[in-house]
Fold GL16471.
Amino acid sequence: MSRNAAAGVVATLPGGGGGEPSSPVQKVWKPELYKIQLEAPAPCPMRCQRTLPLPPTKSTAEEVEQDNQAARLYGSEYHGLMGHLEAEHLLGLTGGEGSYLVRRSPMSDGFYTLSLRFNKRTRHYKLFHKPGVGHYLREQDKRFDSVYDMVADGLINFHMQLHASPIIQQINQQTKNCYQQSPYMTLNGRKLRALSNELGKTNAAAATAAAAAKDDASPKDVDVPLMPTQPLGTLKQAEQLQMMSEAVRRLPPAHYSCLQYMLEHLKRVASHYAVNKMNEHNLATVFAPTLIATPQHMTNLTEEIFMLSSLITHCKIIFA
């Protein structure tokens, strides 16, 4: 499982974004949350360095088989019979943030215990496993293929709860609690108001220019410029696309092929905008923090989002 997948609400936290260049619409999504998620400690299984003790002589054959099955299921991170005080001492003494082990508690009844180190504290959880279902802590919780994936998911969840709360509160204050409503409708409402204001300014300027041109015109004047606006814009765009095509061709072959496949896929997703509400700019807002290398403390990704949006829009021409 990728460390980018987080538990519960963490997995739905936005990665980053911004408005179009020169747009009066301010950014809604923030990349700080995604960067905090990446800073979560990585899982570090603590391997058992000792020979597992034999079960007590009074143990039944079923208990012995369960202990052997646990050793096969959890591997070297299974420490056999161990109390919580010994686990805390072992993790606190030799383990760092994210270290964990699996043990059988002396008072357990049909379950094993996951001991996990986070924020200088050791936490203990009942650990269950069902064949064909996976590992889980409670019946209603998510299932995982391995204990490592479960710990990675939990560490991201803990890290986000510890560090992301102030940023979420700050975002709510900046956007006047827009997250209590639909972020999609909030963003589009702002765009519509901004577009209406811009169209009003454009119409007023066009009317003024038309009146001035009517007074200054004479029969000998050329009716249109030698290079009208529309062909000029097309030429500029063609030049930019050619430069972008030359830039991506400088990438290593593996990067070039992977980027081409990714952009063509995103273009197909954007073609269903009427259904999924994800156009090129929205997709660029989501993927810019992961596809484009940026300085560590950079939070304004407006230019990167605009560039990635252009790559998605014109991918067939750029990779032709």
In short: Residues 22 and 235 are 22 Å apart (CA to CA). Residues 1-26, 217-228 have pLDDT under 50 and may be disordered. The longest strand covers residues 121-130.
